[in-house]
Design goal:
Helix content: 10-25%
Number of strands: 12
Distance between the termini: 26 Å
Strand content: 25-35%
Structural class: mainly beta
Length: 178
């Protein structure tokens, strides 16, 4: 069943389609998610002791994130970009800080086998990016964001990088097979 179509959701989907159509380089960050941080090479990030999917990470600003293990699925014919297979992730974002957190700053990028992965937008399956990007997350509150990235037909090593804001120097990278 398709999710209800609201102006905010349609605006987010249009923004994601526009960014994807413009050919944004994923190494420059995820413009659709408000980030502009450069992605680190997967090998260097792995060496720094980053996390397996499912682990919590707390940033210095009080934001705690957790990225679920990838859930493989077949995108619908309406998905963009077209892909035979994709991996969906649930990001749990909790504001343990003292100030409201702006979800517009959330930056999420991915690599598969060391190569940039494209974010999949599939409104038919409820994958439209950060749908609540226009609202703040109050201290003590949590939200869940579902994102998907195109992956090859065969299982491959995947890295998902999360940065809580473009001004935040810290990046956490989650690793696992997708």
């Amino acid at each position: 069943m398709a999710p209800p179509r609201t102006p905010k959701m349609l605006m987010t989907a249009c923004l994601l389609f526009a960014v994807a159509a413009c050919g944004v380089n994923p190494r420059e960050g995820s413009a659709a998610l408000g980030g502009n941080a450069a992605a680190q090479p997967a090998a260097a990030a792995q060496a720094s002791g980053d996390l397996q999917f499912g682990a919590d990470h707390k940033f210095a600003n009080g934001i705690t994130v957790s990225v679920s293990a990838p859930q493989s699925f077949q995108p619908s014919p309406a998905a963009y970009p077209r892909s035979a297979r994709a991996a969906a992730f649930y990001l749990q974002v909790t504001n343990n800080g003292t100030d409201p957190y702006q979800l517009t700053g959330l930056s999420v990028t991915a690599t598969v086998a060391g190569k940039p992965a494209k974010q999949v937008v599939d409104a038919t399956q409820g994958l439209g990016g950060v749908t609540d990007a226009g609202r703040d997350l109050a201290p003590g509150r949590s939200t869940q964001v579902t994102l998907a990235f195109a992956v090859p037909a065969d299982s491959a090593r995947m890295a998902v990088q999360v940065r809580p804001s473009s001004g935040e120097p810290a990046v956490v990278t989650y690793f696992g097979d997708a």
